[in-house]
Amino acid sequence: MRKYITQKTLVYFFLISGSVAVLMPFFWMVSTSLKKLSHVFRFPPEFIPDPIVWSNYPNALTQLPFGLYFKNSIFVTGGCLLGELIVSAIVAYSFARLRWKGRDFLFIIVLSTMMLPRQVTLIPEFIIFKELALLDTFWPLILPSWFGNPFYIFLMRQYFLTISSELDDAAVIDGCSKFGVFWRVILPLSTPVLAVVAIFSFQYNWNDFFRPLIFLFSNENYTLALGLRFFQGNYGTQWHYLMAVSLIVMLPLIIVFFIAQKRFIQGVVFTGYK
């Protein structure tokens, strides 16, 4: 009994210590967003602001066209999310359920593209979109997502393999086509992995700074991640405003995760089943 209590105590100790270490940057962000700029780097640090400056939030939002950047981010993130869900699901279904010559070899080729550095593919992408006169538009950010994502294809394929093939056979006997099996059988049973891909895609595209920095030039096309750099000037950074807006930008990610948390955990567990 004493050994059991000791083990439980150690487990809870390490869990609580790890949670504090992970949440500390978030607490610092919240604290900084409620301070005066002159109090941000005080020593010893103040985790509880004195005084609490709630006006940092409205002041920060009025210093940049937050509504425009928010709309741009929603459009880009939604377009990428839709493309990655649709295309990756179709490709994964082909790799998991359909039998055709060279399927496994091509799947290995698809996975091998994950080893290519981002900078290697970015240069030819930039040249292509320049020749198509699509620079400084949202198309360079959205179109690549409609050609599939190898990581999401892998996740979906692994999950599709856990679904019994007898369901496919029964659907075919009832008159379903291959696409009908995919649409009526596979997808309704795959909501956990779809939730995983949706969360990953939303988080990545919502926070993406590098690609908008390369492809967008006009202020009216900036996304939120790119717009935050306005608080970083040549002579200093407005940390209290930067943390306030960063916290607001983070809220949609937190809300999406908690809404789809159950499905997310199920998807992560089952995608590694086979």
What would you say this structure looks like, in words?
The chain has helices at 2-33, 56-62, 66-97, 103-112, 118-131, 139-142, 150-160, 165-173, 178-186, 191-207, 210-215, 224-227, 239-259, 261-270. It is built from 14 helices and no strands. The chain is mostly helical. Helices cover 68% and strands 0% of the residues. Helix 3 crosses helix 7 and helix 8 packs across helix 9.
Which oligomeric state applies? single chain
Structural class by secondary-structure content: mainly alpha
* Tally of discrete structural domains: 1
Characterize the largest beta sheet: strand count, sense, and whether it forms a barrel.
Answer: none
Give the overall silhouette: globular
- Give the mean pLDDT: 85
Rg calculated over all Cα atoms: 23 Å
What's the SSE pattern? Answer: HHHHHHHHHHHHHH
Provide the CATH architecture. Answer: Orthogonal Bundle
CATH top level assignment: Mainly Alpha
Total DSSP E strands: 0
And the CATH topology? MetI-like fold
What do we call the CATH homologous superfamily?
Answer: MetI-like
Span from first to last CA?
Answer: 38 Å
* Uncertain stretches of 5 or more adjacent residues: none
Question: Approximately how much helix is present in the residues?
Answer: 55-70%
- Percent strand equals under 5%
Number of helices: 14
